Amino acid sequence: MNTAMAEAGTVNHPVVPLDRWVAERKVLLAREKEVTRLHDQIARERRALPWVRIEKDYVFDTPEGWRTLGHLFEGRRQLLVQHFMLGPGWEEGCKSCSYMADHVDGMQVHLEHRDVTLMAVSRAPLSEIEAFRRRMGWRFKWVSSYGTDFNHDFGVSFTKDELARDEVYYNFDMQPFPSEEAPGVSVFYRNDAGEVFRTYSTYGRGVEAMMGTYSLLDLTPNGRNESNPLYAMDWVRHHDRYERAPIEKRTPKAVGGCCR
């Protein structure tokens, strides 16, 4: 955490009477409503995008055996895939992808009741996926695309030749990328005839849609408190690798009563 940056926004911060605070809060509220209306409009435009029919027969290794992309819907019409950065032979999954995945278990039941199946897909073999999933204590479904073109076709895995050219096709454009795996989220729809369509994919900062923690941090005085221009999420750790939360070290002992 960048303490200096955090303190810059909180030390000697303006303090005003309640009536002035409410007046300034209402000005900000009007701006927030503009963003909310724009967000709703973009969501409508996203739903209006044309679809792409999936022609390739992708097959995934799952805890229940080999399954096609259509089987991953588990009887629902909509499938939301987290492209999780875990390549073959990696000791552990990407920290940022793990941060995303930490939000999944709590919202999965709600998504399922809105006709959405959510799962992660990685290029690592299933045995390596399962080992890391058990370590992290996650319950959500996570399947392997090992040996298939799925990750490459969806722009989240790159060949050695592509990396050697110093540019890969990521986020719908050619750009440098430092890893053979990349994060993303893709959405699919399955109709009554069993046809599967790609309806949406998002990459880069678009994957923040899965990071509810960020939404809450954005409400706080210190905000995200990220200062690394090349890798803003350098503060993130796997949830079993964090040190004790700093607030616990600063909390004063209770005075009086029985809680000493």
Count of structural domains: 2
- Termini, distance in Å? 30 Å
> What's the order of the H and E elements?
HHEEEEHHEHEHHEEEEHH
Low-confidence stretches: 254-260
Radius of gyration: 22 Å
What is the fold named in CATH at topology level of the largest domain?
A: Glutaredoxin
Number of helices: 9
* Biggest sheet strand line-up: 1-10-9-4-5-6
Total DSSP E strands: 10
| The CATH homologous superfamily of the largest domain | Glutaredoxin
Largest sheet: 6 strands, mixed
Q: Overall pLDDT, averaged?
A: 92
What report would you give on this structure?
By secondary structure, the chain is an alpha+beta fold. It has 2 domains: 21-50; 54-212, Glutaredoxin. Helix content is 33%, strand content 18%. It has 9 helices and 10 strands. It has a 6-stranded mixed β-sheet with strand order 1-10-9-4-5-6. Strands 2-3 form a two-stranded antiparallel ribbon. Strand 7 and strand 8 form a beta hairpin. The longest helix is centred in the N-terminal third of the chain and has 30 residues, at 18-47. It is globular and about 65 Å long. The chain starts with a helix and ends in a 10-residue tail after the last helix.
Layout of helices and strands, plus pairs?
Layout: H1 3-10, H2 18-47, E1 52-53, E2 59-62, E3 65-68, E4 78-83, H3 95-101, H4 104-112, E5 116-122, H5 126-136, E6 142-144, H6 150-153, H7 160-164, E7 168-170, E8 173-175, E9 184-190, E10 196-203, H8 212-217, H9 246-250
